[in-house]
Amino acid sequence: MNFTIPDHNCNLCERLCAFRKGNHDKFPAYYNAPVPPFGSLDAEILIVGLAPGLHGANQTGRPFTNDYAGDILYPALKENNLAQGNYQKRQDDGFELINVRITNAVRCVPPENKPTTGEEKNCRTFLSREIAAMPNLKVILSLGTISHKNVLQALSLKQSYAKFTHGAIHDLPHNIKLIDSYHTSRYNINTGILTYEMFDNIIKKIKTLI
Which residues, other chains included, contact 41 with Cβ-Cβ below 8 Å and sequence gap of 6+? Predict the structure, then answer.
């Protein structure tokens, strides 16, 4: 098993285990397990989201897949030649990432999409190991403040080290750049906090850093 991925029946978080069991009963065809990252460990770009969506990655078993946030993320990657294929919102659609790996700060779907601080801490070891296991890593894209916070803590950095600001680029140890973006969530898009053009500019900025 890839050591950056929790066991399929991971029991580190009691609340998430109970929620997962309930979802298995309600949606027996769903993946309903810690969602593994998507993309190669050899990639130069790591995109870190918050957590799987109940009817998105928790259903499909692939980050941002069948989720509104993926409808923004994946086309932007493809348009900037960081992905190829036809994204069809399912794990077996043949869509491929190019020089990109996508993961989440928390690997199991949380109730109301809100993990607790303890759940973030329990899952952070997997993010730390994942970052350490990427020999070519140059850029980490944090989608939202929770992702930003967990990336810093995964690298044993204080929150004061880098303030979350959309579009900001921060220097991290080991010659890694951290770039922040508002999350590609439906709420952020619908309220105009983030537009497709704004996010496309973030992806273009990343390409200048690799």
Answer: 4, 101, 130, 133, 134, 135
Ranges of H-type helices in the chain: 14-26, 57-60, 68-79, 117-132, 145-154, 186-191, 196-207
* Distance from C-alpha of 80 to C-alpha of 7, rounded to nearest angstrom: 33
Averaged pLDDT, 50-75: 97
Does the structure show a pLDDT above 90 at 207? yes
What average pLDDT does this structure show over 114-127?
Answer: 96
Where do the domains of the chain lie?
15-207
CB 140 within 8 A of CB 172: yes
pLDDT over 50 (residue 1): no
Q: Are 182 and 144 in contact (CB under 8 A)?
A: yes
d(C-alpha 133, C-alpha 156), whole Å:
16
Determine the Cα–Cα distance for residues 194 and 71; give it in Å rounded to an integer.
14
Q: Give mean pLDDT, residues 163-176.
A: 96
Q: For residue 119, what are its two tokens?
A: 């759940």
* CATH architecture type of domain 15-207: 3-Layer(aba) Sandwich (3.40)
pLDDT by residue (tens digit) across 181-202? Answer: 999 999 999 999 999 999 999 9
Token look-up 């952020």 returns 188
In angstroms, the CA 138 to CA 126 distance is 19
pLDDT for the residue numbered 2:
58
